Amino acid sequence: MGETFKRIGVIGKYGDPGVADTLKELIEFLDGRRLEVILDTSAAEQLPAGMAPAMDRHELAEAVDLAIVVGGDGTLLHAARSLADAGVPLLGINLGRLGFLADVLPAQIQHQLGQVLDGQFREEERSLLHASVLRGEQSVSESDALNDVVVHKWDIARMIELEVHIDGHLLNTQRSDGLIVSTPTGSTAYALSGGGPLLHPTLNAIELVPICPHSLNNRPFVIGDAARIEILLRDGAYTQAQMTCDGQVNFGLLPGDRILIRRKARCLRLIHPPEYDYFGILRAKFGWGVHS
């Protein structure tokens, strides 16, 4: 069978020398199949010079037809935000424990990656969120998130006050430590620890999960992903807050800032081996069905 993907981008966990052995094995495997390999600068820094040409992330996104991410779910989250606009499919090799996103283990590279390269794989579309911060009428920050956008207090013990609107309609005014706005993909991350429900990744939904709300009546809430969410940071003597995307991108907020959140037009294309089983990963991660 001919190769489904011909130009392969390789992205490594930034600043982690522990990925070098897996990167070398991966490149040798791809070279053995006579595929063109392009390294992201994060991967090139971990390898001897000359193993493969290197490009910055934006150049790589336009040059390859598959990106392989070596690291873990955090590394894949970072790559997803930078590659989704180019429509590049991502496959993750997880160097730690089995991940929700990066689900190929290093010991399975030759078998599972061989299947993918032969055209035997499952492809999913995962929705992302786009968040912008308006200060007055000026946009002062823009970012994407595959897991979640979180508006939360920063370096203070006091709660912050948020006004939440959905499609121009007031949902509530809440005093809390913050608010998590999550995709279905992110429902197994911070939103879960905040008491939110698990959402299957194929659902067209967004969940809003308050963080330690003052009122116990303020509960997690699920809405359709066509909704436009606006969060107003209300003024207070002790207001200190920030917006965080995927736990990786932070932006300091001021009282009166409005955070606009909507589903991003482009989805992430996520590639899995043919035996991928989302429910099996849930069982493994949460220990469902395991008798003590």
Overview of the structural elements:
The protein is α+β, with helices and mostly antiparallel strands and 292 residues long. The protein has two domains: 7-126 and 267-286, Probable inorganic polyphosphate/atp-NAD kinase, domain 1 (Rossmann fold); 129-263, Tumour Suppressor Smad4 (Sandwich). It is built from seven helices and 19 strands. The chain has a six-stranded antiparallel beta sheet with strand order 8-7-18-15-10-11. Helix 2 links the parallel strand 2 and strand 3 (54-55). The protein is globular. The N and C termini lie far apart (46 Å).
What key phrases describe this protein's structure?
292 residues, alpha+beta, Rossmann fold, Tumour Suppressor Smad4, six-stranded antiparallel β-sheet, 20% helix, globular
How does the SSE layout of this entry go?
Layout: E1 7-12, H1 20-32, E2 36-40, H2 41-44, E3 54-55, H3 57-63, E4 66-71, H4 73-83, E5 90-94, H5 109-117, E6 122-126, E7 129-135, E8 138-145, E9 148-153, E10 160-166, E11 169-176, E12 178-182, H6 190-193, E13 205-211, E14 221-224, E15 229-233, E16 241-245, E17 249-253, E18 258-263, E19 268-272, H7 278-286
Parallel strand pairs: 1-2, 1-4, 2-3, 4-5
Antiparallel strand pairs: 6-19, 7-8, 7-18, 9-12, 9-16, 10-11, 10-15, 12-13, 13-14, 15-18, 16-17
Largest sheet: 6 strands, antiparallel
The total count of helices amounts to 7
Globular, elongated, flat, extended or rod-shaped: what is the shape?
A: globular
- Biggest sheet: strand arrangement: 8-7-18-15-10-11
Question: How much is the radius of gyration in Å?
Answer: 20 Å
CATH fold name of the largest domain: Rossmann fold
Q: Helix content range of the residues, please?
A: 10-25%
Q: Helices and strands: which structural class?
A: alpha+beta
Rounded mean pLDDT is 93
Low-confidence stretches: none
Provide the CATH top-level class of the largest domain. Alpha Beta
How many angstroms separate the termini?
46 Å
Strand elements, count: 19
- SSE order: EHEHEHEHEHEEEEEEEHEEEEEEEH
Percentage beta strand = 35-45%
CATH architecture of the largest domain: 3-Layer(aba) Sandwich
